[in-house]
Amino acid sequence: MKQRKTPTNPIFLGILSCLLLTACSSNNLKEAEISRDKQETEEVLQSTGLTVASVDDALLKAEKAIQGGKMDLAQLYYVKAYNLEPNNVQLLQKMADLYIELKKYNLAEVSLNLLLKQQPDNLKATEQYGLLLIKLKNYPDAEKNLTRVVAKQQSWSAYNGLGIIANLQGNPLKAEDFFKKADRIFPNSPELLNNIGFALYSADKFDAAEPYYVKALQINPSFKKAIYNYALLQARLGRYEQAYNSFTKVSTPAEASNNTGYIAMMNGDYIEANNYLQAAIETSPLFYKKANDNLMRLENRDTQ
Fold first, then answer.
1. CATH number of the domain within which 295 lies
2. Which domain holds residue 284?
3. Which of 14, 45, 262, 282 has its CA 20 to 30 A from that of 244?
4. Number of domains in the chain
5. Closest-CA residue to 44 (of 5, 70, 69, 63)
6. 46-80, pLDDT tens digit by residue?
7. Is the pLDDT at 17 greater than 60, yes or no?
């Protein structure tokens, strides 16, 4: 099997409501607007809980709404409380937590920015902000905030975030160092073991990567990211049947065949590549365009 550099792969590393906030600036969070279902809208409008006597009253009602699964109502209470007391750090933290859970990352960023203006040395908020900025793909500022955290305390999640940034920036050896620091603080985490394995894989340290995937899957056999990444490694090591079987645990047979065939092609194992790509096309000839494209690349190489 011919050895080649590992092809670039995305890291698999690896939170909706009827009330949505309107456009906001860093200085002001506007009142919520009702945007979807008429019946839900009328229910919210008719709710006697919409009136609040104080910030504490709003926070209490928001917590009850969250416990009842009414995240839309909780958002409204939080915004009303913010309009009463915009510098309340406890409130801003709760707003950020809720927005992150709802995957409203831009609103979470506004909340954490406001919080950190009040408490710039708040390490919990700084770490949360740094991890949030990774989701927003603002890697320089994410790195700056997480570096501030690890300079003052040992945090596995901050080190893990720094490792993710390093790998995304094409520095797998630096990523490996960060992930291992995280692993020393929080050992036996399938997520961290997977991340160490992927950093080693990205640095073409295939044999060193394998024990981390094996251990991650011993702890959590259904961990999809580790299954997929281990399949990539098995394919790069030329163990194509194993790789295909692993891929089928997290993807369709056509996708599994295409992935295996593509890596075989990158390895220079063209017979195996042709077999798997043909199988992908036969399994799903209309849907699986990628397999046709990869097969054409293989055929064009043979005619050159």
1. 1.25.40
2. 238-304
3. 14
4. 1
5. 70
6. 444 467 889 999 999 999 999 999 998 899 888 88
7. no
